[in-house]
Specification:
Elements lengths: L5 E6 L4 H10 L5 E7 L2 H12 L16 E6 L6 H8 L3 E4 L13 H8 L3 E4 L4 H5 L5 H7 L2 E4 L3 H13 L3 E12 L8 H10 L3 E6 L2 E6 L4 E4 L12 E5 L4 H8 L5 E6 L4 H15 L10 H10 L6 E12 L4 E11 L9 H11 L7 E4 L6 H8 L4 E9 L6 H6 L8 H6 L5 E11 L3 H10 L5 E13 L2 E8 L2 E9 L8 E5 L2 E10 L2 E11 L2 E2 L11 E5 L2 E10 L3 E12 L1
Parallel strand pairs: 1-2, 1-4, 2-3, 4-5, 5-6, 6-15, 7-12
Antiparallel strand pairs: 7-13, 8-9, 10-11, 11-12, 13-14, 14-16, 17-18, 17-27, 18-19, 19-20, 20-21, 21-22, 22-23, 23-24, 23-25, 25-26, 26-27
Helix pairs in contact: 8-11
Amino acid sequence: MSGGTFSLLIIGGYGAFGGRLARLLGEEPRLRLLIAGRSLEKADDFVFDMRSPKGGAGRLGGNDLGAWLQAVVFDRDGDLREQLTRLRPDLVVDASGPFQSFTGDGYKLVRACIDLGIDYADLADSTGFVAGIGRLDAQAQAKGIFVLSGLSSLPALSFAALEAMAPHFSRIESVAAGIAPSAHVKIGLNVVRAIASYAGKPVAVLREGRPAEGRGLIDEMRVTIAPPDVAPLASRKFLLVDAPDLALLPDRFAGLQSTFTGVGTEPQALQRLLRFAARLVEIGLLPSLTPFARALQAASHRFAAGAHRGGMFVRLGGLDHEGRRLTADWSLIAEGDDGPFIPVLGIELLVRRLLDGQRPESGARPAAGELSLADFEAAFSQFSIASGVRLDHQEEAQPLYRRILGDAWEKLPPALAAIHAGGTRLASGRARIERGSGLLARLIAGLIGFPAAGEDVPVAVRFVAEGEREIWTRSFGSKTFRSWQAAGPGRDSHLLVEVFGPFRVLLALVPEGQKLRLIVRGWRFCGIPLPLFLAPGGDTYEEERDGRFHFHVEIGGRLTGLVVRYSGWLVLE
C-alpha cells in the first residue's frame, strides 16, 4: 500500500462474482480497483457501468464511487511476472475459475504472487485446489505474505457457522452443508462448468467413518432452510456437490462419521432433469456434462420460477456435553437479489481489514476458519439477510412453539411465551367475531364450527399437550370448536401444522417486534395438497399489549372471501 491507496487486482473483475465484489468496494476512497480479465472491452464496459449514474445506488453501482477504477487486461496463461510487475497490486483476488479445470501447474498464478511478494486470495470452490494450497505454505511464510484459498460460502462461511456451533458438542459425528440459490439468480458460466465437471462422477465423502465415493449431483438429502426469525424456504432436495469442506472436515473433527455438501436449485423439476443427466454420465452413456455447460446455464435462466429468495444451511449432529443426542442447524435466507453477494463477503471483509491495518498471518492455507460467524453477520446487515441457529436435543421435550421457533423463542414477549409454555393450561378473555357472508364461506365456517359474529364475546381456550401435538379447544360464548397443532414432519419441518377437520394448514411462525405472525405456507384437504394461491390467508398474529396476550385471526381466501375474523385478549388462569 503506497501513497495511502491500496491497489486491488480482481481477476475476473467483470464476471459474476468479481463484479459484485467491485460493487461492494466501490465506495471506498482508499482503493484502486483494477478490473481485470482477458477482454479489455468487457472490463471497460463494466467500469463505465460502475461510473454511470443510477440514482445514488452506492455499493450496488451508483455514481458516488470513491474508489479509483481502472480496466486492465490480464491473461493468466500469459507472462504473469511481467503483468503483475506492471500492475503493482497490493492484493490479487482470483474470482475467475472454474478452478476444477486448471491444467498443468494450477498454482502458477499463486506462485507468481509469492515470488513477487504479493498477497493472494481466491474464491476457489475446487476441493483439490483449496485442499492443496498448503503445499505453498513455507514459500509464502518466507516471503511474509498470506495466501488464502476458498474465501467463499464453502468453506469460509460454512466453517464460520460450524465453529460457532461446535462448542455445544462433546462429539461431532456428522456435518452437512448446502446452498439453495434463488431461481432468479443468473448463474455464471464458470459456476455451471465447475458443477458439470463432476456430475455423475465420484465425489469423496465420509460414510460410517470411512472414506467413500459419493455420486456427484446424484446422491441427495432433503432439507428445509429455516432461520428462526423468518418464514422458511420451501423444503427441497439437495444434490451432492464437490466442495472443499469434504476434504477439510475430517482433519477438523476426529471421529467424524459422515459428510455431505449439496446444492438445492429451483425449480426442483429442472434439478431432477440435471440429476437424470448425471446418471447418464454415471452409467457411461455420456462422458461428461461439461460440453453442455452453456445449454445448462441457458436452461437455468430460461426456466427460472419460484420465490426471489435463496439460502444456505450447515447442520451438525452428535452428542452434547451431557451425552444427549444433539442436532444443530445454522441457516440463512437472503431476500430478493441479495444472495449472490454472499460468496464475496469474505473477500470484502478481508480487504476492509487490510485497509485498517489488520493482516492475516503469513502463510498459504485454506480460508476455512479464517473469519468468524460474527464477522459475516456484521456484513449481512447491509443486505436483507437473516440467519440463526436451532438446537434440537432429541431426548429433551420442549413446548411446541419453542421447538419450532428455535433461538427466536427468546425474543417472544412474556405474555406470548406464557401462553405457549406447554402442558395443560386454560386462558380466558373477550373477543370480537366477524363472519363472511358468502355461501362457500358460510359452508366452511359451519363445517369447522366457527362461532357466530358478535361483540365482546366471552372466550376461553384450553390447551392440552398430547404426545407431539397440542389440542386447542376454543369456546366463544356457547359455541366451541377444536383444532390440533403439531410440528411439521419431513418436507414440512420448521412449520406449524394446524388441523381443522379435513383441512391441514401449514404455518410459518415469524417474530416481528412485539408480534408473532403466522404466515400460511401451504394447505391440504383430506391429505391432498392444494394450490398455495388459493390457501386460506389473512392477517394473523399474536402480540403483547399492556402486559396481556392479544390475538388477531383472519381466515379467508380468493374463492371464499372472508370466512371468519376474530380478535381479542386472553389471560392465563
